Amino acid sequence: MRPATSAEIRDWDELVLANPDGGHILQTRSWGEFKRRWGWQPHYFIADSGRGHVATLFLTRRVPGAGTLWYSPKGPGIAKPDELCDILRDPEGFDRGFLVKLDPEIDAAADTSPWRSAGMQKAPTEVQNSTATILVDLRGEEDGIIASFKPKCRYNIRLAARRGVVVHRLPVTDATIDVMYRLMRETQVRAGFMLRPPRYFADYWRLQHAAGQGEFYFATLGHEVLAGCFATHFGHKGWYKDGGSSRRHHELMAPYLLQWEVMRSLRERGVQTYDLVAVPPAAELDPSHPFYGLYRFKSGFNDRITEFVGTWDWPLRRRRYRWWTQVGERLARQWTYRVHHDFFY
């Protein structure tokens, strides 16, 4: 594994798209430069998986008393588990590192025994908020796609359209940022989850929109905004990144029409798979799960849950790693939230 050249960094996104996994939005140049503003240093590396080069974004953060923490968000972009061991055969490349955290999108049922043999272990806590998702196939004709949805979901989409709900795709501006965050805040109050500060969202909404990788979509009734979504896209993939809705006129089912129009828009851009992000794992489908409400909504578009292996750790300094897992990470998370009202990762 070696640092990317200046020419490779200039063409970084094209290299990520050529990765075995087809690329991920959290491995792009815009995401790396965004995280630079929030306490992380991006590093752009070219690794050899033995079957070709893999462009891999790593983020680093200095941990006092321990060293440097390395993290590759949704990376490396491999397609098979055994490719990871080829990439990580040289620990000297991780300068002053005590821990490398990885979360490639490998199916949860895959054989990860080679990773354990190489000294890796399943992380005690996940970096991303969920290892399970629902994917919607956008290939084929529109009639066939909507016919694959559950009958109640199709009914809700048509109900919203009949009652006058309209979906608009809008650029990222001060005004649309304010509207989107207000919807997210309203949803947070109802659902009780934690929300990052508005500047965090505004930063990456602007950067990803400027890179041509993300846009706002709003469902409106007249001049009133009922629901909003920030959707990202990269290559043949799209993601439901952020969303929020008002309880006003909730009987109109605006979020269903909103998601359908997002899918139609992404499909026109050549997106083949839409990732709805964050549902409970199949073994935890219970109303008590914090993501169960998300599952009830998202499963209308497809009820098949896709699960990934999640975050894995490669400890480079065992004693420091033990301190991190037992004490350090918890303190880092608490300090970041109390002082900056934000999350560590």
Briefly summarize what is shown.
The chain is of the alpha+beta class and 345 residues long. 36% of the residues lie in helices and 25% in strands.
Describe this entry's structure for a reader.
With 345 residues, this protein is α+β, with helices and mostly antiparallel strands. The chain folds into two domains: 2-129 and 309-340, Aminopeptidase, CATH 3.40.630.30; 132-306, Gcn5-related N-acetyltransferase (GNAT) (Aminopeptidase). The chain is built from twelve helices and 14 strands. Strands 1-2-3-4-5-14-6 form a seven-stranded mixed β-sheet. It has a seven-stranded mixed β-sheet with strand order 8-9-10-11-12-7-13. The longest helix has 23 residues, at 318-340. The mean pLDDT is 94.
Relevant terms:
345 residues, alpha+beta, Aminopeptidase, seven-stranded mixed sheet, 14 strands, 36% helix, globular
Set out the fold topology:
Elements: E1 2-3, H1 6-10, H2 12-17, H3 29-36, E2 41-48, E3 53-63, E4 67-72, H4 82-87, E5 97-102, H5 113-117, E6 121-122, E7 132-137, H6 142-147, H7 151-162, E8 165-170, H8 174-191, H9 198-210, E9 214-221, E10 224-234, E11 237-245, H10 254-268, E12 273-275, H11 292-298, E13 305-307, E14 312-315, H12 318-340
Parallel strand pairs: 4-5, 11-12
Antiparallel strand pairs: 1-2, 2-3, 3-4, 5-14, 6-14, 7-12, 7-13, 8-9, 9-10, 10-11
Helix pairs in contact: 7-10
